[in-house]
Amino acid sequence: MSMHTLKTISITAILILWGINAAFADVTVFAAASLTNALSDVGKAFEAAHKIPVKFSFASSSALAKQIEQGAPADVFASADTKWMDYLDGKGKIDHSTRSNLLGNTLVLIAPQSKGFPVTMKKGFDLAGAFRGKLCTGVVESVPVGIYAKEALTRLGLWESIQPRVVGAQDVRAALNLVERGECDTGIVYETDAKLSKKVEVIGRFPADSHSPIVYPFALVTQSGDAKKFLDYLKQKPSAEIFAKYGFKLLEQ
């Protein structure tokens, strides 16, 4: 067998192996914790429709952004606020041309089921005097839900009185869990997370003008063709129906 023939066979084998690997390549999505249930369902629907596996890593947007900055192998990033998408955008870590704000949410005050208390979400209300224990939310310096919470409490004139009793959790699901277990008498989370739990009740909704709009920007981190297919799928009807089922506001279709 000639060297030319061997070389041709080798190249053909490499191309076949590359094709096989590409066919089974995963799309890796780094997404905010509040998207866990909805995006997991979207991922299953996408896999069924396109036969392309999707892997998810859910955590706080801040933690995920730092991981991507350090080279973590993400194809798509979905943040719970624009701050951390801006952070990666400014460092050239995402494809800016693919960035879009797809979803919105509502900020709510929760309490353990059957342990709620009357609240009025407006200036002048004595929130600190309405309960005795701790208030759980995300870390107010970095986790999006905590950032929104501090902003809302500040605009309503409630932050200074309640700040010593605020407990910062690593992400919104951790804050929700603390309220579910009764370790915090109240908490500030997204309405979509509160709806998933039978152990908490919503006792108040923050006015939309008390904080920056809660938006979820999505963008590609890599130039993967399969990742682009997934990002496009997020804007299609099957995904929209799933997001709506979980209570997200649809900003772009």
Topology:
Elements: H1 3-23, E1 27-32, H2 36-50, E2 54-59, H3 61-69, E3 76-78, H4 82-90, E4 100-104, E5 107-112, E6 135-138, H5 144-155, H6 159-162, E7 166-169, H7 172-180, E8 186-190, H8 191-196, E9 200-205, E10 215-220, H9 225-233, H10 237-245, E11 249-250
Parallel strand pairs: 1-2, 1-3, 6-7, 6-8
Antiparallel strand pairs: 3-10, 4-10, 4-11, 5-8, 5-9
Helix pairs in contact: 2-10, 3-4
Write down the domain tally. Answer: 2
CATH fold call of the largest domain:
D-Maltodextrin-Binding Protein, domain 2
CATH architectural type of the largest domain? 3-Layer(aba) Sandwich
Tell me the Rg in angstroms.
22 Å
**How much helix is in the residues?**
40-55%
CATH class of the largest domain: Alpha Beta
Strand content: 15-25%
**How are the strands of the largest sheet arranged?**
2-1-3-10-4-11
Query: How many strand elements?
Result: 11
Shape: globular
Assigned CATH superfamily of the largest domain? Periplasmic binding protein-like II
Distance between the ends: 58 Å
What is the residue-averaged pLDDT? 91
What structural class should be given to the helix and strand makeup?
A: alpha/beta
Low-confidence stretches: 3-24
Task: Describe, in plain words, how this protein is organized in 3D.
Involved in the transport of molybdenum into the cell. Part of the binding-protein-dependent transport system ModABCD. The protein has helices at residues 3-23, 36-50, 61-69, 82-90, 144-155, 159-162, 172-180, 191-196, 225-233, 237-245, and strands spanning 27-32, 54-59, 76-78, 100-104, 107-112, 135-138, 166-169, 186-190, 200-205, 215-220, 249-250. With 253 residues, it is an alpha/beta fold. It has two domains: 3-104 and 216-250, Periplasmic binding protein-like II (D-Maltodextrin-Binding Protein, domain 2, 3-Layer(aba) Sandwich), CATH 3.40.190; 107-210, 3-Layer(aba) Sandwich (D-Maltodextrin-Binding Protein, domain 2), CATH 3.40.190.10. The strands form two sheets. A six-stranded mixed beta sheet has the order 2-1-3-10-4-11. The protein has a five-stranded mixed beta sheet with strand order 7-6-8-5-9, with helices on both faces. It is globular, with a radius of gyration of 22 Å. Mean pLDDT is 91; it is low at 3-24.
